[in-house]
Amino acid sequence: xxxxxxxxxxxxxxxxxxxxxxxxxxxxxxxxxxxxxxxxxxxxxxxxxxxxxxxxxxxxxxxxxxxxxxxxxxxxxxxxxxxxxxxxxxxxxxxxxxxxxxxxxxxxxxxxxxxxxxxxxxxxxxxxxxxxxxxxxxxxxxxxxxxxxxxxxxxxxxxxxxxxxxxxxxxxxxxxxxxxxxxxxxxxxxxxxxxxxxxxxxxxxxxxxxxxxxxxxxxxxxxxxxxxxxxxxxxxxxxxxxxxxxxxxxxxxxxxxxxxxxxxxxxxxxxxxxxxxxxxxxxxxxxxxxxxxxxxxxxxxxxxxxxxxxxxxxxxxxxxxxxxxxxxxxxxxxxxxxxxxxxxxxxxxxxxxxxxxxxxxxxxxxxxxxxxxxxxxxxxxxxxxxxxxxxxxxxxxxxxxxxxxxxxxxxxxxxxxxxxxxxxxxxxxxxxxxxxxxxxxxxxxx
Length: 446
What we know:
The chain is an alpha/beta fold. Helices cover 41% and strands 11% of the residues. The protein contains 17 helices and 10 strands. The protein has helices spanning 3-9, 34-41, 75-88, 131-137, 143-147, 150-155, 165-182, 188-206, 212-217, 232-245, 263-273, 297-308, 319-322, 330-343, 361-372, 385-395, 403-419, and strands at residues 18-19, 30-31, 46-54, 61-71, 93-97, 102-106, 125-128, 352-354, 396-400, 442-444. Strands 1, 2, 3, 4, 5, 6 and 7 form a 7-stranded mixed beta sheet that branches. Strands 8-9-10 form a 3-stranded parallel beta sheet. Helix 17 (403-419) links the parallel strand 9 and strand 10. Helix 14 packs across helix 15 (361-372) and helix 15 runs parallel beside helix 17. It is globular and about 70 Å long. It starts with a helix and ends with a strand. Residues 313-318 have low confidence and may be disordered.
């Protein structure tokens, strides 16, 4: 079935709640989610997003995404789209049309394909070829039924946070952390830092920030940093060069002495992130499911914050709470910013301070709003790196007691800046330097 036919049949066409790439209700007018929708547009053939909307005086609406409508070439392509949408961590339901079928997936759950189970037999609703049968099964997804809450009565129990990408990735990180601590790297701070460093490296690589051009310039090969052939010497070199290029260190590791990670620890983490095991070559954990090119940086910063304060084996699970460390889920961040904006809308010249910023979830979303309200911002077009740096240095400030959290906040803000640059490895502006936020915009203190 054609996606436009399904959109019309479900009453989405003409609804102010249905956002598309262009038209009267474009993606970029969605506060906090516009960049996520636009990133999904080409790889998922995203035709539109049905949302719950609240209009703002700025002309950019705050939204709650409910349903993606995408087009696939076949059932395998539908599975690929489902994986991308799950990694985006933004929308609970996904409708995919293929030439002969309609599919319904949970946007908050994705499982590895099982041998002997055809793609058409997976998802919340098996592939339906008959249009009448499909529309009957999808009755609760009609625009009116979403607006009046019927959708949640019928399908709400099929959506659970425990299967979302942030929960799954956090569990995978903790499992890998346990392996390291059981195999010679028994200092929790060092094992956390090594894993955090590889999250960071994979994000930079898959977002094309740590590009082949950078690696060639530094005399390095990607295969010596990522995967089972990783070498400790290449790892230490890329860490050193990135700290120089990105103006700051994150997850510092001891480079000498008994606390320094051994080559087998580095190789194990590198291979696990690549989705295989250095000894057997088999898939390990669920790391092969994650795609850091689509996991939003705001989601990643929340995962970092939870992981940094995960219970240690010897603290009874109280480490984070004793420090007063509580993570804030991204939907709650967006809701609170919406409430704040209704009382005191952001205007040019205002500055934002989060005096307990943690890993920067609030600051990242504030920075995005500042960028997307700037006079130089045009949807889908890159901005000048200098202007992005100026907006960051002038407007965004944070304080936290935890040094690791401060470093993650700095990294998250830097990566948000690079989200609006094309190409993100800055090869068109080789003289540009990213801001050093430590002690200037982000302060460690009580």
